[in-house]
Design goal:
Elements (H helix, E strand, L loop, with lengths): L4 H10 L1 H17 L2 E4 L1 H20 L2 H23 L4 E6 L4 E2 L3 E10 L6 E15 L6 E10 L4 E9 L4 E12 L6 E7 L3 E6 L4 E2 L1 H12 L4 E2 L8 E7 L11 H7 L3 E6 L2 E2 L2 E6 L3 H5 L6 H20 L3 E7 L4 E6 L2 H12 L9 H8 L8 E6 L9 E2 L16 E4 L1 H7 E2 L14 E2 L5 E3 L7
Parallel strand pairs: 3-10, 16-17, 16-19, 19-21
Antiparallel strand pairs: 1-9, 2-4, 4-7, 5-6, 5-8, 7-23, 7-24, 8-9, 8-10, 11-22, 12-15, 13-14, 17-18, 20-21
Helix pairs in contact: 3-4, 8-9
Length: 451
């Protein structure tokens, strides 16, 4: 036997989850419906209309009754016209795929009038931006926009820009569309459940000359992994005397004339050293901060992101990235654009842990560190500010069986010597700078508009 629809519906309503789910869906559906309400001017206008009508009825003054009827016409016409508005509007938001903290963010809104006969006037759009963490949470920013006129079949592209000063994930939407046309007595409002997500990567900085000098010194004194490349890609190293078997194309004729004998160009094969980058975000000072982060945390994350980007751009090496944050994570892969994006996304969402997770994540990934790799530990902690390579046991980590890499630990104070970056401004106004872009709005011919 089939189920009785009435019993099924009754059991669904008796279920708490079903009732709450039905109520939330009903509220979402109600908010998505176009709503008509009186504006402040409409309230005053209606109050005057009521006063005139009441006086006319009580005193039985025909001229005031005619005046009340004349005053009733505009508000009825405005209400009927508002009912037809916003039924044919279609909006699409275009959000950047990738952006770093502090970069200029440009968001576009494509507004299309799908009607073949009805024009739209004085459309007011309000877009909402809500930070979802880990640095900022909760407060919503509003960006108002205006479309003065939209002909039948016309598409117009609006855009607004601003700078998001903190890394993390941001939600765009919902989008509110409203119009007061023609008299401003009633407002037609439509809330579109148009939501997009944007992950803001950590702020990028610049590695100083001291960093490259240290890298070169470490590079020359450590075992390296050679790449298989052609001689055309080798770097010019110097000249040496000619030996039997050398190609005539390698002869450096100007140096040969100066030395009085044949000399040839000497090349060195490019070599790269693998990297294990460990990001330690545990800090008691950051936990005591009400914001849940501090300048030291953002400096460490920005430095790690900049180093990761530099190695992925150079290529030819393997990178192991480990983040000891609230949700420890690590991954190992050859340097590439795809691995860079994955690493930046996890660095963007990294949070200060409530407990020390460095030992936990070290036990997971340390056995995957390739021999000869450079192990770089960047930490928010300030103790033992000595830029020197140390074995794991001196840093409070368990030593690996059969292989004990030396770890170069850099704290916030030392990072500032190898790295420069303009940190985000502190304060409640950080990021609230979104505004419409100046200039003429883009329009599309009605015949070629998207329908």
């Amino acid at each position: 036997m089939g189920k009785n629809p009435e019993n099924s519906l009754h059991s669904t309503f008796l279920n708490g989850r079903g009732l709450l789910g039905f109520a939330s869906q009903a509220m979402a559906w109600y908010r998505s419906l176009p709503q008509i309400r009186l504006t402040q001017a409409g309230v005053y206008y209606l109050a005057i209309l009521i006063v005139v009508a009441v006086v006319a009825i009580m005193r039985q003054i025909n001229l005031m009754l005619i005046l009340a009827g004349m005053l009733l016409g505009p508000i009825i016409y405005n209400w009927r016209l508002s009912r037809r508005a916003l039924q044919t509007v279609h909006i699409r938001r275009l959000v950047p795929q990738a952006v770093c903290a502090g970069d200029l963010v440009v968001v576009q809104l494509e507004v299309v009038n799908l009607s073949k006969r009805l024009s739209l006037y004085a459309l007011r759009l309000v877009d909402h931006i809500t930070p979802r963490g880990p640095v900022l949470r909760g407060e919503t920013w509003e960006v108002p926009l205006l479309v003065p006129y939209l002909a039948p079949g016309e598409k117009r592209v609006l855009s607004y820009e601003g700078r998001i000063e903190y890394r993390g994930r941001y939600q765009f939407g919902p989008l509110v569309v409203a119009t007061h046309f023609p008299f401003g007595l009633t407002e037609r409002r439509l809330t579109l459940p148009l939501e997009d997500q944007l992950t803001v990567f950590p702020r990028m900085g610049k590695l100083t000359r001291k960093w490259y000098t240290r890298r070169r010194e470490e590079f020359e004194g450590a075992p390296r992994r050679s790449q298989r490349e052609s001689r055309l890609s080798h770097e010019f190293y110097g000249v040496r005397g000619w030996q039997p078997g050398d190609s005539l194309r390698w002869i450096h004729w100007r140096s040969s004339a100066r030395h009085g004998r044949l000399v040839v160009r000497q090349f060195c094969r490019p070599r790269n050293r693998d990297l294990a980058l460990i990001v330690d975000l545990y800090s008691e000072a950051a936990l005591e901060d009400k914001r849940g982060h501090g300048e030291g945390t953002e400096l460490v994350v920005s430095f790690a992101a900049t180093v990761l980007r530099q190695f992925c751009r150079e290529g030819g090496t393997n990178i192991l990235l480990a983040i000891a944050d609230r949700d420890p994570w690590w991954a190992s892969a050859p340097a590439s654009a795809s691995f860079l994006r994955v690493g930046l996304e996890h660095l963007a969402m990294a949070e200060v842990p409530t407990k020390n997770t460095l030992q936990e994540i070290w036990d997971e990934f340390s056995r995957h560190i390739p021999p000869g790799a450079e192990v770089l530990l960047v930490s928010v902690r300030q103790e033992n500010d000595i830029s020197a390579e140390k074995p794991p046991e001196e840093l409070g980590l368990r030593e690996l069986p059969g292989y004990s890499p030396r770890i170069l630990r850099l704290s916030c104070r030392e990072i500032s010597e190898f790295f420069s970056v303009g940190l985000s401004p502190q304060g409640e106004t950080a990021g609230k700078v979104f505004q419409p872009r100046s200039g003429k709005q883009d329009t599309v011919d009605p015949q070629s508009a998207t329908r």
